[in-house]
Amino acid sequence: MDRRALLAFCCVAAIAFACAPRSTPANAAQRNAPRAMMRTPEATTPTLTSALDVETREAVRFSLAVENTTGRTVELMFPSGRTHDVVVFDARGTEVWRWSAGRMFTQAPRTRVVEHRGAVAFEATWPAPSPGSYVAVASLSDAARPLTRQVAFTVR
Predict the structure, then answer these.
(1) Mean pLDDT for the chain?
(2) Domains of the chain
(3) 141 φ, ψ to 5°?
(4) What residues have CB less than 8 Å from 103, skipping those under 6 apart?
(5) How far apart are CA 52 and CA 147, in angstroms?
(6) Phi and psi for 57 in degrees, rounded to 5?
(7) What integer is the mean pLDDT of 47-71?
(8) Whether residue 9 has pLDDT greater than 70
(9) Distance from C-alpha of 82 to C-alpha of 105, rounded to nearest angstrom
(10) Which long-range contacts (CB under 8 A, 24 or more apart) does 98-107 make?
(11) Whole-model pTM over 0.90
(12) How much is the average pLDDT of 78-99?
């Protein structure tokens, strides 16, 4: 075989290999898991409960409380340093503030263990709100159990 043809074949094979679809470890685990294990945790038994509290004063303080209601320890897995986020919308539905906007987060995955019947809280503060009616949407960035809670509130 001609050296040029062999080189061209190797280049085409390398490009085809690099462009081939890959499965992520999560997809591979789901594919190899028994059917009963593929259900989301919320569909079988509740594992976490959450509540969003809003305290309005000169600043607005948000507290997303997450409680482990299982009989075992739960590990929250975050794909980056951002564990949660809070977004505030005005009465027209326009986003007026986002806790994560302008912040930098590590790109390293991190975990947080929540003991049986234990709880963790994630907090954010909106320092200078204008008077008005708003809706806050808080979300937990856990890869396996994403949670979202919302609450309406008024700043006077």
Answers:
(1) 80
(2) 46-155 (2.60.40.2360)
(3) -90, 25
(4) 82
(5) 11
(6) -145, -130
(7) 93
(8) no
(9) 6
(10) 99/62, 99/124, 99/126, 105/80, 105/81, 106/80, 106/81, 107/80, 107/81
(11) no
(12) 97
